Fold this sequence. Notes:
By secondary structure, the protein is of the alpha+beta class. It has helices spanning 45-53, 57-70, and strands spanning 2-5, 16-22, 27-32, 37-40. It starts with a strand and ends with a helix. This is KTSC domain-containing protein.
Amino acid sequence: MKFTTFNRVLWNLKQFDTIGYDKTTKTLIVKFFSGEEKKFTNISEETIFEFIIAPQKEQFFYDKINSKVLN
């Protein structure tokens, strides 16, 4: 799995800055500043692309990824 770390200041991140994605298994891992890691399965590559280019990454995460998994 490859990980990407976003610039906290540039993206105004308060919760997390590192994500990892495995396109074979469609698994996303989000590493939070608290040390917690959350794993999400069945996340499409299209959703990950949208996440990476989203100007409000935390809002996108909570609206499009976290909320769908919890519902």
